[in-house]
Every structure is written in C-alpha cells, then in structure tokens.
Write a structure and sequence with these properties.
The chain is built from 11 helices and 6 strands. By secondary structure, the protein is of the alpha/beta class. A 6-stranded parallel β-sheet has the order 2-1-3-4-5-6, with helices on both faces. Helix 1 links the parallel strand 1 and strand 2. The longest helix is centred in the middle third of the chain and has 15 residues.
C-alpha cells in the first residue's frame, strides 16, 4: 500500500528539530516533509507558498503557529489534505491585549535582545517538568537563535494579523487529530476540547506529562498518536 506523504509545519521560532523524533519514527513508513513557516509575513502568504511546494495530496500536521498555517491551507485547498493534525493550536484571532504584549518583545528582538526574550519570556512558559526539560529548553533557544530576529518579527506580525479559524474548523471533513499536552498552559486542554467539538470528525489525544511541546517532551507517545491517526 502506498501512503500519502506527511507534511509537518513547526511552531514559531522552531525548525525541523521540533519534530525530530517523529521524523525518525515515521519516515521509514512514508515520506515526511518539513515545510518552512518562516518565509512570509502573513499566515495567508506562508500557506500559499507551502501549497506551491507540496505534493498534490498529503497528510498535514501543524504545531501551534504551524497549526494556524495548516488551518489556512485547509481553508484554501481542503481537497488536497487527506487528514489533518493540530498540535497545541489556537484557532482564534489574536486579541488586542495579546497583540500589544508582543510589541515589547519585537522591540527587544530588533535591538539585539532576542535571546533574552526567548530565555526569559517565551520558553519558560512552554515546558512541563520532565527529566529532559533543561535539554529541550536549550534546544528551543538554539532553534530560535538560528532563525534570528527577522523571523521573530515576521512571525509575530503574522500572529497579530491572523484570522479567526473557528468557522473553518466546522467545515473540516477529513480525519482530524487534535493533540495537546496535559500541562500546556498556553493552549489548554479545555481549548483543545473546544477545537475537537467544533471539528466533528476530530479525535482528541491528551499527552500526559507534557506541556506545549509534546513532540519533544513525550516523543514516543506523540509518535504513537500520529501513527494511529495516519493509519
């Protein structure tokens, strides 16, 4: 049996390392493609570029910021996506308060303080207390610094301007997995339950002992959930 390729979309300020365990675990079963989510200035622009570079039909998995891009791809080209996985995704538009909170971070990144923002304000909120927390913390910082302040600016602006995808969720007809960490303080389990309710064919999987980054915090449990969804 020939399986459709899997396209994965990383979170803000993350690269392929965010999905490294899943790539290793699933790539012997099917083609796995990491699509860039750092090249455009709006979610719509990023989605358009990804559609230009992906196969005609594919399974799609997006993490957080990548989940927003995945929802825009679904809105534009639903027949090209055979199945959808949303990890730690917020489908709602940015609130004015949250948009305003990003401005000091953008200024800091522009003035050479990106590492401070990542280490002190962003990454500490993401991770649960696991034996590998310190290692994952440093990997998250390294991914962000590798991408740099220009990407931070573009992705922050894209989040500030993103549309509300709640109606789009109700239109999804393909098999859908909603996956989150039980200890995620950013996109809580309650919010993921809301997504699963809006997306009628969705299955909700909550990964224990994980925060906002279950792909790295509990890689084997995440692989198992993805494999079940794919097969």
């Amino acid at each position: 049996m020939k399986f459709e390729p899997l396209v994965v979309l990383p979170d803000m300020m993350c690269d392929a390392r965010l999905f490294a365990p899943q790539i290793d675990g699933l790539s012997h079963e099917r083609a796995v493609m990491i699509a860039p989510v750092h090249l455009g200035e709006r979610v719509e622009e990023i989605a358009s570029m990804i559609l230009d570079m992906t196969p005609h039909r594919f399974a799609l998995c997006g993490h957080a910021f990548g989940g927003n891009v995945a929802l825009e791809i679904m809105r534009r080209a639903p027949t090209r996506v055979s199945r959808l996985c949303l990890i730690a995704t917020n489908p709602m538009a940015e609130t004015p308060i949250r948009a305003a909170e990003r401005e000091p971070q953008i200024i800091a990144a522009r003035t050479g303080r990106l590492e401070q923002v990542i280490r002190e304000e962003i990454v500490p909120e993401l991770l649960a207390e696991t034996p590998f927390k310190a290692h994952i913390f440093e990997m998250m910082v390294d991914m962000a610094l590798s991408l740099g302040p220009d990407v931070f600016l573009r992705q922050s602006r894209a989040l500030q301007k993103r549309r509300d995808y709640q109606r789009s969720l109700s239109l999804i007809k393909c098999p859908c997995l909603v996956l989150c960490g039980a200890e995620d303080q950013i996109t809580t389990v309650q919010r993921q339950e809301f997504i699963a309710e809006l997306t009628e064919p969705a299955k909700l999987v909550v990964i224990e002992n994980a925060g906002h980054v279950p792909t790295l915090e509990q890689p084997e449990a995440t692989i198992a959930a993805l494999r079940d969804w794919l097969n």
